């Protein structure tokens, strides 16, 4: 995975964040889960993700992620995703309190409005984009994988356009099955993501592992949307333990929305 540090962050980061928001759709329900991002070489814990899902699988589903400095530590970033009838193209907003970075996509009439702000002192940049039926946005990647599962399991390579708010544009990606594996005693399918075309020759890949039984995401390996102290995006392995994935009667998204964000992680 050494080549991952050379990947232009604007290609991978929005897609990476989309991947680890994934969850299978069944009846509408509420859900919480935790992700642990570690250094792939040393195993050192780098940060923790707290995921909250309200009415999973329903039109109007909301997902909120708090990125924490450590287990039970303060959150430094927050992301919220809102679904609509076209589930592979949801709206979302991401904010990182440490740098003031933010990005997102909103519906405007029959189109889209993407925006990005690099830090608290720079102006927000925006762009209007056409909403195409095949377009994938953020956590809508989950819907794409689920709807094309049989083709992926059969070894077919699938291409799709993905909206990258930091570039205010869309780019082509391709996805195909890489191998079968076992994680925590569970059979998984490992899928590999690459940029399409010539750009794919010069960038490395991202591997994502889904449990075969129910298509639940179990592991992500690649470049993170979270930056280290040196300002570079971290290389991570994010694991989502099955015993920390729980259905609930009701998830309190309001509490997660108003939880204060810290401007720096101590230690």
Architecture overview:
The protein has a 15-stranded antiparallel β-sheet that branches. It has four helices and 15 strands. It has one domain. By secondary structure, it is mainly β.
Low-confidence regions: 1-7, 23-27, 198-202
How far do the termini sit from each other? 27 Å
Question: Any idea how many domains?
Answer: 1
**Helical percentage:** 10-25%
Which structural class do you get from the secondary structure elements?
mainly beta
Order of helices and strands: HEEEEEEEEHHEEEEEEEH
Q: Please, what is the average pLDDT?
A: 84
By DSSP, the count of extended strands is: 15
How large a portion of the residues is in β-strands, by DSSP E?
A: over 45%
Shape: globular
**Gyration radius, in Å:** 17 Å
Number of helices: 4
Concise structural overview:
The protein has one domain (2-258). Helices cover 11% and strands 45% of the residues.
What secondary-structure arrangement, pairings included, does this model have?
Elements: H1 9-19, E1 30-38, E2 45-54, E3 62-68, E4 75-82, E5 91-96, E6 101-108, E7 111-117, E8 125-130, H2 140-147, H3 149-153, E9 158-164, E10 169-183, E11 186-195, E12 206-211, E13 217-227, E14 233-239, E15 245-248, H4 253-258
Antiparallel strand pairs: 1-2, 1-14, 1-15, 2-3, 3-4, 4-5, 5-6, 6-7, 7-8, 9-10, 10-11, 11-12, 12-13, 13-14
């Amino acid at each position: 995975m050494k080549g991952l540090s050379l990947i232009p962050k604007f290609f991978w980061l929005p897609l990476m964040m989309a991947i680890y928001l994934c969850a299978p759709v069944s009846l509408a329900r509420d859900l919480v889960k935790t992700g642990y991002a570690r250094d792939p070489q040393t195993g050192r814990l780098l940060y923790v993700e707290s995921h909250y899902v309200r009415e999973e699988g329903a039109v109007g589903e909301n997902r909120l992620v708090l990125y924490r400095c450590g287990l039970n530590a303060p959150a430094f970033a927050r992301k919220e995703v809102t679904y609509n009838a076209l589930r592979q193209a949801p709206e979302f907003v991401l904010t990182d309190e440490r740098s003031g970075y933010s990005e997102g996509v909103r519906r405007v009439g029959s189109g889209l409005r993407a925006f990005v702000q690099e830090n608290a002192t720079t102006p927000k940049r925006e762009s209007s984009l056409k909403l195409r039926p095949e377009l994938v946005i953020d956590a809508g990647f989950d819907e794409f994988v689920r709807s094309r599962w049989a083709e992926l399991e059969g070894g077919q390579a699938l291409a799709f356009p993905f909206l990258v708010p930091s570039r205010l544009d869309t780019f082509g990606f391709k996805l195909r099955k890489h191998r079968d594996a076992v994680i925590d005693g569970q059979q998984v399918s490992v899928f590999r993501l690459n940029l399409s075309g010539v750009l794919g020759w010069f960038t490395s890949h991202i591997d994502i592992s889904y449990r075969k039984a129910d298509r639940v995401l179990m592991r992500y390996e690649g470049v993170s949307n979270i930056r280290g102290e040196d300002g570079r995006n971290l290389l991570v392995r994010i694991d989502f333990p099955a015993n920390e994935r729980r259905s609930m009667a009701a998830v309190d998204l309001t509490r997660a929305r108003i939880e204060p964000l810290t401007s720096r992680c101590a230690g």
